[in-house]
TrEMBL record:
<comment type="similarity">
    <text>Belongs to the cytochrome P450 family.</text>
</comment>
<keyword id="KW-0560">Oxidoreductase</keyword>
<keyword id="KW-0479">Metal-binding</keyword>
<keyword id="KW-0349">Heme</keyword>
<dbReference type="GO" id="GO:0016705">
    <property type="term" value="F:oxidoreductase activity, acting on paired donors, with incorporation or reduction of molecular oxygen"/>
</dbReference>
<dbReference type="InterPro" id="IPR002397">
    <property type="entry name" value="Cyt_P450_B"/>
</dbReference>
<keyword id="KW-0963">Cytoplasm</keyword>
<dbReference type="Pfam" id="PF00067">
    <property type="entry name" value="p450"/>
</dbReference>
<keyword id="KW-0408">Iron</keyword>
<dbReference type="GO" id="GO:0020037">
    <property type="term" value="F:heme binding"/>
</dbReference>
<dbReference type="InterPro" id="IPR001128">
    <property type="entry name" value="Cyt_P450"/>
</dbReference>
<dbReference type="GO" id="GO:0005737">
    <property type="term" value="C:cytoplasm"/>
</dbReference>
<dbReference type="InterPro" id="IPR036396">
    <property type="entry name" value="Cyt_P450_sf"/>
</dbReference>
<protein>
    <submittedName>
        <fullName>Cytochrome P450</fullName>
    </submittedName>
</protein>
<dbReference type="GO" id="GO:0004497">
    <property type="term" value="F:monooxygenase activity"/>
</dbReference>
<dbReference type="GO" id="GO:0005506">
    <property type="term" value="F:iron ion binding"/>
</dbReference>
<keyword id="KW-0503">Monooxygenase</keyword>
Length: 402
């Protein structure tokens, strides 16, 4: 076994790292800021492991946590031990914690959010400056998901700017650890206050729904706060990148953009291919083996940590062929990605993410069909966020409105 591949917290060469991971094989040893783990980079292996009940999410099963080698001083601790929620439990407990959020985001229920998505999209487009370089991420892609998830969960508008700062500090690996822990504590305070307010006076939002027992066993305050925090984090960090990465991919592929604008390629195909080729989540931390798990010619040892390296998984040549590194929305396997996960923890917000992106993208390109990058693509940089595929900015020239 070779040296574990050290994952770069500053994300200076994401393509290079994705390739190195894939070439290292479907399961490979990595180093996460000093902590060892397995990275899964093969799609078949990912699907098998994501359905294997011997892999669980509670940090209590992690060898490095039990030995004290990993503590709350580890910069990624907030990703692995964010408090009790549907994200950190398994089995029957998990089904109970997840039920209401999954029901709330069915396609039919989503129709109620559609007017919000349409309005916010129209307003953001109308507010874009008429001239000069525009950061499509800051001015368009970022505000939409934050607003939508806040409306869904009932986060007051006044709280949103500070939330944005706190989550940004949470994810960035340039944030000193004491500041990160302070941001986590502040988020927890804000959400706890919000949950207590809804417990006293319910409103028409998902936080209030999480508090209603509905005949079943009620969730504890910690569980409601945990679910709320998970939904806001997931809802606002990931969809931004889906929109940004799709815009970037189309600008880099003008022939395909023309086919999309001519109606020869659907927006849905663009989204699926973006999810495969440049997904919002680079690495999903973490699962732990409750016993030795043999997979192919590898054995994951009891207590070892397992990371799903979704960006490498999307480039699996066994699934997508020798041209897996090419962005091609017409490829037959475009929707056969695993980017939303698989098995019991599969993303419950997937339909909402797709609804937001499939509103935002046609609206943006419909109004600005000449949209093009303001800098060479090779100059775009990622934020220092190990787990997320998050560009710093997406500077464009809008061109004349249609
Ligand atoms: C952030 C911190 C927190 O309070 C709660 C959670 C649980 C859900 C996690 C979230 C985390 C980080 C981003 C995740 C999200 C689920 C989906 C999202 C991992 C740890 C993705 O990026 C896929």
């Amino acid at each position: 076994m070779g040296c574990p591949l050290a994952i770069d917290p500053l994300v200076r060469d994401l393509d290079g790292e994705t390739h190195a991971l894939r070439e290292a094989g479907p399961l490979t040893r990595i180093d996460l800021l000093g902590a060892p783990a397995w990275a899964v980079t093969g799609q078949t292996e990912a699907r098998r492991l994501l359905n294997d009940p011997r892999l669980v999410k509670t940090i209590a099963r992690w060898r490095e946590w039990r030995s004290g080698a990993v503590t709350r001083g580890w910069p990624l601790i907030g990703m692995v031990d964010p408090g009790r929620s549907m994200f950190t439990v398994d089995g029957p407990e998990h089904r109970k914690l997840r039920a209401k959020t999954a029901q709330a985001i069915t396609p039919r229920r989503l129709e109620r959010l559609r007017p919000v998505i349409d309005d916010v999209t129209a307003r953001l487009l109308a507010d874009l400056p008429a001239e000069g370089t525009v950061d499509v991420k800051a001015r368009f892609a970022a505000p939409l998901p934050m607003t939508v998830v806040s409306v869904l969960m009932g986060v007051d508008a006044e709280l949103r700017p500070r939330q944005h700062e706190l989550w940004s500090a949470f994810f960035s690996l340039r944030t000193p650890q004491d500041e990160r822990l302070a941001a986590i504590a502040e988020l927890n305070d804000v959400f706890t206050r919000m949950v207590r307010a809804r417990a006293r006076q319910p409103a028409d939002d998902l936080t209030s729904a999480l508090l209603r027992p509905d005949g079943g066993e009620p969730l504890s305050e910690e569980e409601v706060v945990g679910n709320l925090s998970a939904m806001v984090a997931a809802g606002h960090e990931t969809t931004v990148s889906l929109i940004v990465n799709a815009v970037r991919a189309l600008m880099a592929n003008p022939d395909q953009l023309r086919q999309v604008l001519d109606g020869e390629i659907t927006w849905s195909a663009v989204l699926e291919e973006t999810l495969r080729w440049d997904p919002p989540v680079t690495h999903l931390l973490m699962r732990f083996a409750t016993e030795d798990i043999a997979i192919g010619d590898t054995t994951i040892g009891e207590g070892e940590g397992v990371v799903m390296s979704y960006r490498a998984i999307g480039r699996d040549r066994r699934e997508h062929g020798p041209d897996a590194d090419v962005f091609d929305p017409t490829r037959p396997t475009r929707a056969k990605h695993t980017t939303f996960g698989h098995g019991p923890h599969i993303c419950s917000g997937a339909a909402l993410a797709k609804l937001e992106a499939s509103t935002a993208l046609p609206a943006l390109f419909g109004r600005y069909p000449q949209l093009r990058l303001a800098v060479p693509d090779a100059e775009l940089r990622h934020r220092p966020v190990l787990t997320q595929n998050d560009l710093e900015a997406l500077p464009v020239l809008l061109g004349d409105p249609a």
